[in-house]
Amino acid sequence: MYLTKEEEKILDGERGEILRRCLNLLVSLGEIYGAERLIEIRSAQISGVSYKTIRDVGLEFIEDLAREDVKVKVISTLNPAGMDLDRWRDLEISEEFAEKQLRIIKAFEKLGVELSCTCTPYLTGNIPTFGDHIAWAESSAVAFANSVLGAKTNREGGPSALAAAILGKTPYYGYHLDENRKANYIVKLELSKNWGESLYGALGYLIGKMVKNGIPYFENLYKLKPSLDSLKSLGASMAASGGIALFHAKHLTAEAKVKDVIGEAERIEIDDKEIEEAYNSLNSTEDYELICLGCPHCSLEEIKKVANLLKDKKLDRELWVCTSLQVKAIADRMGYTKIIEKAGGKVIKDTCMVVAPIEDLGYKSVATNSGKASVYLPNFCKSKVYFSDVEDILKH
Ligand code: F3S
C-alpha cells in the first residue's frame, strides 16, 4: 500500500504510539481489502459506545487512548450509548452501569469527539454532502449516507472508525470506489394493498435477506412517495437483515438522480404475499410490555406524529420514543414531548431499545414500528416482538 512520507513516519512510531497503532489498524485493513492508499475523510461516526456492547474491555481501550494527548481530526460523533445520559435514573438503569457508561463518554470527550449519541448524525449536524468520503460505523447511518446523501463510506467497525477519526483518513477501497457502487439487483414492487409506513421496515427486511451484502436498485419505489424517514427505515432494515450498505432508488437517492447506477443485475419482484410473510417472520407476539419507537432515532416529524396520536390519551403500558439530544430539544420546544409524557410515555435521548439494557429492566416483549429493531431485539435483548405501524401499536 502506498504511504506518504508523513504516514511512514507515523507508522515508524515517530508521532507517538497511539497514532502508530491507529495507522497500523487502517493499513492492515487496507491491505486485507486491496486498498492502494489512504484518503482523507470529511467526518467519522463511531460505534461501540454502549457499555452493554463493549463492556470493561472496550471501556479500558477507550480510556487508554484518552490518557494520551490525542484528538480526533475531523467531525466525529457517537452512536447511541446504553442510557439517556441525563435521565438514566428515570429509566431505572443501575448505578454501576451508569458509572461505566459515563466513563466511556468522558473518554470520548477527551478525544474531542462530539457527544452527540445518535444513529442519525445526519439529522444533527454531522452531514456529509454528495461524494464526500467518510468513515461511519453505524449500519443504518452508513446505508443512509451512501444511498440517500451520496457520500462514500464502508461499514466501519468501532475501532476502525475511531482510528479514522484520529488520523482523518481511511483506506481507499470498497464503497469509496465508484466501480463498487453499481447495483447488482433490480427490485420491482408489485403491490396492490395499501400498506402503512412500517412497509419500509418489512420490505427492507425482505430485500436484505434476498440480496445479502448486495446493492439493490429500486425501480418503482418512488411511486409510493416515500419520505426521508421511510428511506431511513428501509436502509436500516436492509442493513440489519442483509448487511446492505448502499442502495439506489430511481428518482429518490442521490447517485440514481445523476448517473447510471445499474451494473450487471438480477431482477427481483416483490408482491403483497411476500410482504405479508415478512411481517409474519418479524412478529413473535401480540402482547407487549414496552413500546419502543425511534429505530433509527426519530426525526422531529416522527415525534410530531406520535404526539398527535397521543393527544388526550393515556397509555396503558410503557412507551419509549428514542431520539437524539438535538431533535429532542426541538420536540421539547414544540410541545411534543409534553404531550407524549402527559400520555405516560417518555422521550428518551442518547440511547435506544437495542443498546440499552432493557432485558435487565425486566422487559420481555416489545412493540416497535422498526424492521431493524425487530431483527435485533430477539438476539440482543432476548425480547419477543410485535412489529406494526405506529398507529396500530398505540391503539392497542
Ligand atoms: Fe439506532 Fe439503535 Fe436502531 S442504534 S438504528 S436505534 S438499533
Question: What topology emerges from the helices and strands here?
Answer:
Layout: H1 5-11, H2 17-33, E1 38-40, E2 43-46, H3 51-67, E3 75-78, H4 95-110, E4 114-117, E5 135-136, H5 139-149, H6 158-167, E6 169-171, E7 183-190, H7 199-211, E8 216-218, H8 228-242, E9 248-249, H9 254-258, E10 262-271, H10 272-282, E11 290-298, H11 300-310, E12 318-323, H12 325-334, H13 336-342, E13 346-349, E14 365-368, H14 371-380, E15 384-387, H15 390-395
Parallel strand pairs: 2-3, 2-5, 3-4, 7-8, 7-10, 8-9, 11-12, 11-14, 12-13, 14-15
Antiparallel strand pairs: 1-6
Helix pairs in contact: 2-6, 3-4, 5-8, 7-8, 7-10, 8-14, 11-13
Bound molecules: FE3-S4 cluster.
FE3-S4 cluster is lined by residues 79-80, 119, 140, 236, 295-297, 322, 352, 354-355, 372-373, 376.
Describe the structure.
It is built from 15 helices and 15 strands. With 396 residues, it is an alpha/beta fold. The radius of gyration is 21 Å and the shape is globular. 52% of the residues are buried. The protein binds FE3-S4 cluster. FE3-S4 cluster (F3S) binds next to strand 11 and helix 14.
Note the main attributes of this structure.
396 residues, alpha/beta, five-stranded parallel β-sheet, four-stranded parallel β-sheet, binds FE3-S4 cluster
Brief overview:
By secondary structure, the chain is of the alpha/beta class.
